[in-house]
Amino acid sequence: MKNLFSLNGKVAVITGGTGVLGGQMAKALAHAGATVGILGRRIELAQQVVQEIENEGGKAFALQADVLNENELQVAKQTLIIKYGRLDILINAAGGNLPGATIPPNKSFFDLQTEDFRKVVDLNLMGTVVPTQVFADLMVQQKAGVIINISSAAANRPLTRVVGYAASKAAIDNFTKYMAVELASKYGEGLRVNAIAPGFFLGEQNKALLTNADGSLTPRGHQIISHTPMSRFGNPEDLDGALIYLCSDAARFVTGIVIHVDGGFSAYSGV
User: Is 165 tagged catalytic?
Assistant: First the structure.
């Protein structure tokens, strides 16, 4: 019987693959059988992830490009074509936030730094749109391919403080649905676009906000855990199942959806 969850023979590219969550997703793809391209601005960091995957018996290669630089992405695409001649999976995992696009308790919306807000929207939204425009062309030619965007728990229920990040991730949800319709209706059922919305995962960007130096929770950390029915933060590997499902033939009739991996955060009203 065919293993619907196998990615054997598939070629994938993941932007932001040098980050904590992106790196884990890259390893999950490789473990499922895919050959994974780690795309990042710093080639040495991408090569480190490649080495980790190869040490575990997987297949990977490094690509250097800024997700906001179309010329660099086109060069990376040509490298991909020369090496493998195809692309089956694109994971848009690059993203982030900036202090000036957040509003701490001692400030208000009128203190928002609009330039940082623009940069955050560019990184999260345009950093998904531009790679999709560059790489999805290969999928259109093949009449087959899967695109996975990374949304957030902040997309549907905006969180206090992170105004720029939440707005840009809400746009990711909309873009995901738009592209699902656009590609399937114009180029066939073989092209699918979905998104994963992680809940709260500890990383370098939010660790100091959610935990103290001794590992205990900050007031905001307590607030988040109290609104998460599973009563914990996510671990990077918690994303593996949703990722492999959406990339595989098991989800061949699934497009235009956002899967929340958040321990129940999005389902809890607080009451």
Answer: yes
Cα 23 to Cα 175: distance, rounded to the nearest angstrom: 24
User: What confidence tens digit (pLDDT) does each residue in 36-88 have?
Assistant: 999 999 999 999 999 999 999 999 999 999 999 999 999 999 999 999 999 99
Asked if residue 146 and residue 228 are part of one domain, the reply reads no
Residue 211 shares a structural domain with residue 160: no
Q: Is residue 173 part of a domain?
A: yes
Residue 139 scores a pLDDT above 90:
yes
User: Which domain covers residue 214, as residue numbers?
Assistant: 204-233
In terms of Cβ atoms closer than 10 Å to its own Cβ (0-12, 13-18, 19+), residue 6 is: middle
Given 84, 165, 245, 268, which residue is catalytic?
165
pTM for the whole structure: 0.96
Regarding whether 83 and 140 lie in a shared domain, the answer is yes
pLDDT of the residue at 207: 79
